[in-house]
Amino acid sequence: MKFATSALALVAMTAPAVLAFAPPSFGRPGTSVHSTAVETPTYTFPKSEEIFAEAQTLMPGGVSSPVRAFKSVGGNPIVFDRVKGAYAWDVDENKFIDYVGTWGPAILGHADDDVLKAVGETMAKGTSFGAPCPLENELAKMVIDAVPSVDMVRFTNSGTEACMGMIRLVRAFTGREKVIKFEGCYHGHADSFLVQAGSGVATLGLPDSPGVPPAATAATYCAPYNDLDAVKAIFEENKDEIAAIILEPIVGNSGFIKPDKAFLEGLRTLSSDNGALLVFDEVMTGFRVAYGGAQSYFGVTPDVTTMGKVIGGGLPVGAYGGRKDIMETVAPAGPMYQAGTLSGNPLAMTAGIETMKKLREPGVYDELERKAKKLVEGIVEAAKKHGQPICGDYAGGMFGWYFVDGPVKNFAEAAKGDSEKFGKWHRMMLERGVYLAPSMYEAGFMSMSHTDEDIEKTIAIADEVLSQM
């Protein structure tokens, strides 16, 4: 529902319903895409407020995952009704340009027609088998062909589950317990990883989580991201005891932080020299920044990779894979046990297969990065025009920015961002029809369905909002 803030909005409110919640038109002849001459109509959310109020009596915080509650940006979340392409509609019939994309999986755009058709055909055969099916083979072959580090793969039901299997695997294979992770990197909510974990933990201001026994994290060592000397020091103090170095090869759970390529190369050398495994958590970056993931983007190959999000095409899925000698440690080929009732679910396999067919077409990732670059540079330019400190970056179909002079190279620098300003920015963008991640510690996502017009509208709205901050 819109609240009129200008004459333009009054016209829209008297127009047919289909126009009443359409995003305003920008970039008309004679009008700069950065013009703030006409205010954008703003939305109100009465039905969302009503539904969320009830949800808070039914579920902890009213949500099924913490960051959705908008705790770090103020106000209450909007409640979605439907999605299609680059857009989302809430229960109040407000339409949004969506840059969250169900937190990454919607790389084609929401509700892709071909994916839906294929899933419907598979659903007619049954929703779950709990037994081998040929779809698992097909998706496995696609993953193995695409990801440099993967000779064999095990499917799971989520990224968290994939990381739980991964950490057990690296310990079983090496016979060592200790692992190194990085401040602000999130690898799911398993006990071993909830140490300086970024994502929702950082969003809520929780350094750790109550309920995690000290013993569960005693073998987890943390280093600052992009700091190779800190990693060397941990190896020196724990000689022949480190099982693995585990990291997000691009950090998407502290906003958006790119690694120095020399950092990744140094980790590859350090792990090999010390008998440890190098693990890339590509749940977010896999098939998102390049078809072969961040390891393909940067040209650095780990020993083990975790995946999720995109490979399920919007349905629940995760996976971990690696060298054949490592993966043959996993049961039933080897002694390291991990299982899942719905693992390899035919619907998720189908959605992943159909999504990846489209992603392997020539030019897909060049186009995603072109659009991400246009969005980031446009908003950075608008912010600087209005005297706002800002920095931003992108890779493939993934991006982010901070309200701080950059560059940002680690979590400590990300945490210097102005959280109050980010919250105001988020709410004002939301009210004008742009749906961004409700935390300054989360990356944004571009899809194949976003158009240049969508991006130009977003930049124009951002220019208007930044002029008022």
Can you tell me about this structure?
- Helices cover 37% and strands 14% of the residues.
- It has 17 helices and 16 strands.
- Strands 6-12-11-10-9-7-8 form a 7-stranded mixed sheet, sandwiched between helices.
- Strand 9, helix 10 and strand 10 (277-282) form a beta-alpha-beta unit.
- The longest helix is centred in the C-terminal third of the chain and has 22 residues, at 364-385.
From the structure above, extract its key features.
single chain, 469 residues, alpha/beta, seven-stranded mixed sheet, four-stranded mixed sheet, 17 helices, 37% helix, 14% strand, globular, disordered N terminus
Assembly context of the chains: single chain
Spans of at least 5 consecutive residues whose pLDDT stays below 50 are 3-37, 199-207
Helix content: 25-40%
Overall mean pLDDT score?
Answer: 89
- Give the end-to-end Cα distance, rounded to a whole number of Å: 24 Å
Rounded Rg? 22 Å
Largest sheet: 7 strands, mixed
- Give me the secondary-structure category: alpha/beta
The overall strand count is 16
Major sheet: order of its strands?
A: 6-12-11-10-9-7-8
Number of helices: 17
Portion in strands = 5-15%
Task: Note the overall shape.
Answer: globular
Secondary structure layout:
Layout: E1 2-3, H1 7-14, H2 17-20, E2 42-43, H3 46-55, E3 80-84, E4 87-90, E5 95-98, H4 113-123, H5 134-146, E6 152-156, H6 159-174, E7 178-182, H7 199-203, H8 214-217, E8 220-223, H9 228-237, E9 242-247, H10 261-273, E10 277-282, H11 293-298, E11 304-308, E12 318-322, H12 324-327, H13 346-359, H14 364-385, E13 391-395, E14 398-402, H15 411-414, H16 419-431, E15 434-435, E16 444-445, H17 452-467
Parallel strand pairs: 5-15, 7-8, 7-9, 9-10, 10-11
Antiparallel strand pairs: 1-2, 3-4, 4-5, 6-12, 11-12, 13-14, 14-16
